[in-house]
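Hi Y.,

Following your request, here is the sequence exactly as I used it, all 496 residues.
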Amino acid sequence: MTEYTTIIGLEVHVQLRTRTKLFCGCSTEFRPDAPNTQTCPVCLGLPGALPVMNRYAFDLALRTAVALNCDIAEFTKWDRKQYYYPDLPKAYQISQFDLPFSASGWLEIASDDDPNATRRIRITRAHLEEDAGKNLHDESGRGGDSRVDLNRTGTPLLEIVSEPDLRSASEARRYLEQMRTLLRFMGVSDCNMQEGSLRCDANVNLHVRTSDGETTATPIVELKNMNSFRNVELAIEYEAKRQRMLWEKTGQSIEDAPKSTRGWDADRGVTFAQREKEESSDYRYFPDPDLVPVVVSREEVEQVRRQLPERPDVRRRRYQEQLGLSAYDAEVIIDQGPEFAEWFDSVAAACGDGKTAANWATQDVLRDLNADGMSLSRFPITSQVMGHLLTWIVDGRLTTSAARDVYGVLKQRAADGQVLTTSLVDSLAAERETVRDTEALTAAVHAAIEALPKAAADVRSGKQAAVGPMIGMVMKQVSGADPKVVRSLLLEALQE
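Below is the corresponding structure, written out as tokens. Let me know if you'd prefer a different format.
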């Protein structure tokens, strides 16, 4: 029986969060409606222009490499990668070849076989380079003109190359999701795939083991034009099937054909041939004569390591082990990014109950942010005010329903321009405070049992759902009653 193993390596390209480009002072702002307005003689490669390295870009790249557990080189240099595309005005790209600043790292992802287990995906290298521009093609199908926007030319780009350790399209997607989460928590990139801040190429081939024990490999294909995690997953799945069918038909192995590049057509759900892939010798690398090498000391690396923010995997584990959150809730909070996670941490600390804070953060707050298309920075209820409101629930002084009333009023007051404070929360909550008059509640409970004898008989016979109408009646009679307390009193009275 023939066995097929999918072999996948990913090249992740990350635009670093800097205000200026890697070797000049041009803005890195994303402005697709104003093409070719953020260029200068340096990023255009005009005669006499000299590049100067953006130190902050290197610092961000170094922070990423340390977070990815890479070995950091004490000496690294810049190289010119020679090739010509319309979006590369210099006809070369300043990159790194044989002496990248970092190598031999790893990133852990959940295993396909056991979601509670992890697999370590090795990272070959992470190197810094400048980005190219962007070709804009007529997509009408009428063969119109192509244009070039050079605004992106020279933007700091970190290329993170994995070993071919991934074994399925779903693993590749999880790797990208983990990578994006880590990069966002490190504060090095916004990882917006729609704006090109995070891009990915996938190298895919199959290892084929035949019934006689022989193993061969199909030619490696590099997949491009994938602008979402879902498209990466779909493209790899399709390409693995295509290579399997081709091997069964032709028996073509890696020795029979060079590495090639294929694009991904998301509309048709297929990959298509583009070109044969260049080898490193085709790029004619040589050291850039205009840039000095970069030297990094062990002390600098250790300082970066000490200053790293809490890693998302560590934070996720803390949420589950210390705050008692479910794996799902922890993942939802982490997936929103560092700003949301910090906001949640502050709310949880203020109310003293991580589960209550998580329920409100992942349901009410996140729902409102998504519905209004609002960023957390514009959300009117601060973590301090939110946490103070939730203390009323945690202390049993306010029901969840009453707290949602207060929450709604707070949003409306904020929309009217009022500053929200903890004292305002106290004032609104006190008007809806849970009734603690057990005498009034007991009287209302007995009145409900007498008014609904059939429901009472159903509950006594074991139909617990029948208690609902009686709870509703008590709640109407005693405003502010806690439905949990009412239910408990009703069941107790009915048992008597």
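The CA atoms of residues 329 and 340 lie 13 Å apart.

Thanks again,
Q.
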